[in-house]
Design a protein that fits this description.
Layout lengths: L3 E5 L4 H4 L2 H11 L2 E6 L6 H12 L7 E5 L5 H11 L3 E6 L13 H9 L4 E4 L13 E5 L4 H4 L2 H11 L2 E8 L11 H17 L4 E7 L3 H8 L5 E7 L13 H9 L4 E4 L4
Parallel strand pairs: 1-2, 1-4, 2-3, 4-5, 6-7, 6-9, 7-8, 9-10
Antiparallel strand pairs: 5-10
Helix pairs in contact: 4-5, 9-10
Length: 267
């Protein structure tokens, strides 16, 4: 589980909106937080002072400060999380510059493309919630090899945060699956996932949603106040596991009212 939570900041309120989430996650996991920033035209002292000020929001959480001046943000983020002990990223989307840049922009896209550690994203529709514990983790699954790769991470996070896992699949009204597997095969795979989750001692159930838009169906379900986060893998070619550069995962991140945990499987 995470021991270091890398939080990229760019000076915008949007990028800083993740700080309460990072604090709650660090508190629940007993993890530390590494605040990271860069800046063209800013001195190292100015950037250091900025991060020191933001560190106060984290209270008693152990905090490290990393100033990477005059370097492109995405490679700096990926490097920071790669070298951190059991690292992961918590960042906001739709900031106007630097680390907080929108997921549609190059920074977050490049982070998701290159990082093999968990990335927790807060989109523009994210709402303040009591915390990440004692609720549901919604796990998106469409039967693809990529989408199943989220299972170990979902189990790990659910166990650490005390969450119930809800495996979500989406089908048209006629039962046709939105994804890469036929209905019978998908149901069999879901049963296998449920068995893996239960063997880890975690409460789990399957919810089959109906609709022609997978992202809309998932986000609609996850709008319930007891849903702590959505979890999905990137780089699938169809359905909910589609790459973060594709429409489904992008729409989930940009319209969900809760954080979205994104994992890129190993090549």
């Amino acid at each position: 589980m995470l021991k270091t939570i890398v939080v990229p900041l760019d000076g915008s309120e949007l990028s800083e909106s993740v700080l309460p989430v990072a604090r709650d996650l660090a508190h629940r996991l007993g993890a530390g937080v590494a605040l990271l920033t860069t800046g063209w035209g800013s001195t190292a002292d100015e950037l250091q002072a900025y991060l020191s000020g933001r560190a106060e929001v984290l209270g008693e959480i152990p905090v490290a400060i990393d100033v990477v001046a005059d370097r492109f943000p995405a490679p700096a983020i990926v490097e920071a999380v790669d070298v951190a002990p059991d690292g992961g990223v918590v960042m906001a989307t739709h900031g106007r510059s630097g680390f907080g840049k929108a997921l549609l922009g190059s920074v977050a896209e490049d982070v998701l493309k290159d990082a093999h550690r968990p990335v927790l994203l807060l989109g523009p529709k994210a709402e303040p919630r009591p915390g990440l514990g004692d609720g549901e983790l919604v796990m998106c699954f469409d039967g693809s090899h990529t989408s199943i790769s989220i299972v170990p991470t979902a189990i790990e996070w659910a166990a650490a945060l005390g969450l119930t896992i809800v495996v979500i699949t989406v089908a048209h009204g006629d039962g046709t699956v939105l994804g890469s597997t036929e209905r019978i095969g998908l149901d069999q795979e879901v049963e296998g996932i449920i068995g893996r989750v239960r063997s880890a001692g975690i409460e789990v159930r399957h919810e089959r949603l109906e609709g022609n838009d997978a992202a809309k169906a998932v986000v609609g379900y996850a709008s319930a106040p007891n849903v702590a986060l959505i979890a999905l893998a990137t780089h699938g070619r169809t359905g909910m596991a589609r790459t973060a550069l594709g429409s489904v995962a992008m729409k989930i991140v940009h319209t969900a009212v809760c954080p979205v945990l994104v994992v890129r499987p190993a090549d």
